[in-house]
Design brief:
The complex is a heterodimer of chains A (about 110) and B (about 110). Chain A is mostly beta strands and about 110 residues long. Chain A is globular and about 35 Å long. With about 110 residues, chain B is mainly β. In chain B, strands 2, 4, 5, 9, 10 and 11 form a six-stranded mixed beta sheet that branches. Chain B has a five-stranded antiparallel beta sheet with strand order 1-3-8-7-6, with no helix packed on it. Classes of the chains: A mainly beta (about 110), B mainly beta (about 110).
């Protein structure tokens, strides 16, 4: 967890609201990944960036999800509008050629 | 795409005994195999990894073996301790692809 700060750690919102999850990599890595973890589907890769550029967003479930990385030390994952099925733990991970290091995650509950 | 299967889904062992978790992968091009440990309320933490040019790697009480021909790899934990209780995930990727495919996870419980 030491290399990545995620906020908020917990988020409870109502269906239809916009949710923004934040990730701040502490150490310099070329790659940043967003994952979603649920009991039913396990760990799923949503999108990843290389040098702040989105490379593969094929895992983003639908247009309600969007991600940005305006600079090397900040990324956001936005859900608008949120739905109950978006409830999950969302992880940001950083890495290089192979190894990925995960942040502590944001636990999202959409009512 | 890559498909990683992991067994067993739960594993209960007596403290001091060994624990073994097995994974198989489908894409013969995969060449990087990390293992992650996830404790309650935390993110997955890398504990050991192996590349396809190596058959075995050891780090203190944990070891990983890889059989490229059979496309399976295993995690071995010896002399288990209560702090080893967690969910363990295997994963596979092709180095230049950067996309990890994860197994479903194994919940390990070490009984005191």
């Amino acid at each position: 967890d030491a290399g990545v700060i995620q906020s908020p750690r917990h988020e409870v919102t109502e269906m239809g609201q916009e949710v923004t999850l934040r990730c701040k990599p502490i150490s310099g890595h070329d790659y940043l990944f967003w994952y979603r973890q649920t009991m039913m589907r396990g760990l799923e890769l949503l999108i990843y960036f290389n040098n702040n550029v989105p490379i593969d967003d094929s895992g983003m479930p639908e247009d309600r999800f969007s991600a940005k990385m305006p600079n090397a030390s900040f990324s956001t994952l936005k859900i608008q509008p949120s739905e109950p099925r978006d409830s999950a733990v969302y992880f940001c991970a950083i890495g290089g050629l192979e190894t990925q290091y995960f942040g502590p995650g944001t636990r999202l509950l959409v009512l | 795409g890559e498909n990683v299967e992991q067994h067993p889904s739960t594993l209960s062992v007596q403290e001091g005994d060994s624990a073994v978790i097995k994974c198989t992968y489908s894409d013969s091009a995969s060449n990087y195999f990390p293992w992650y440990k996830q404790e309650l309320g935390k993110g997955p933490q890398l504990i050991i990894d192996i590349r396809s040019n190596v058959g075995e790697k050891k780090d203190q009480r944990i070891a990983v073996t890889l059989n490229k021909t059979a496309k399976h790899f295993s995690l071995h934990i010896t002399e288990t301790q209560p702090e080893d209780s967690a969910v363990y995930f295997c994963a596979a990727s092709i180095v230049d692809d950067y996309k990890l495919s994860f197994g479903a996870g194994t919940t390990v419980t070490v009984r005191a």
